[in-house]
Amino acid sequence: MSIDPNDDLPEEFSAQDQIARSEQNIEVKLDSRTYDKEMTVVDNLGDEIDLDDLSSTLKSNLACGGTVKEGHIELQGNHTRRIEDVLVDEGFERGNIQVHR
Fold first, then answer.
1. How many domains does the chain have?
2. What dihedral do alpha carbons 79, 85, 91, 94 form, nearest 10°?
3. How confident is the model at residue 31 (pLDDT cuts 50, 70, 90)?
4. Nearest to 100 by CA among 54, 34, 32
5. pLDDT at position 48, please?
């Protein structure tokens, strides 16, 4: 993935995708599933974002499993410490990411 020197976002993102990513108010929270398994939930991503593609990227970078359900991404395990950096690398604004630990 190459970076555009003018805006520090990967060149694969279209201008519309870059705007959509910069305007999202993302909420990351920790949830508990059966047998006390932790699940990191990424919500409020909006309709413009390809959730399947972002989910695949998050799973690869965080080395975990996960899925897309009902407009949000669920990742297996507690990734609240690292997910903000990964989302910023994907073009989202750090100030628009709210992580509930």
1. 1
2. 100
3. very high
4. 32
5. 82
Task: With beta carbons less than 8 A apart as the criterion, state whether 26 and 97 touch.
Answer: yes
What's the CATH code of the domain at 49? 3.30.780.10
Q: What would the two tokens of residue 60 be?
A: 């690869």
- How far out from the chain centre does Cα 41 lie? 9
Q: Is 32 within a domain?
A: yes
Q: Tokens 């991503």 appear where?
A: 45
Gap between the Cα atoms of 54 and 58, Å rounded: 6
* Helix (H), strand (E) at residue 62: helix 51-62
63 within domain boundaries? yes
Give the range of the structural domain holding residue 69, as residue numbers without chain letter. Answer: 25-99
- The terminus-to-terminus CA distance of the chain in angstroms comes to 31
Question: What is the chain's length?
Answer: 101
Residue carrying structure tokens 């020197």: 5
The helix, strand and coil proportions of the chain, stated in percent and rounded to the nearest 5, come to 35, 30, 40
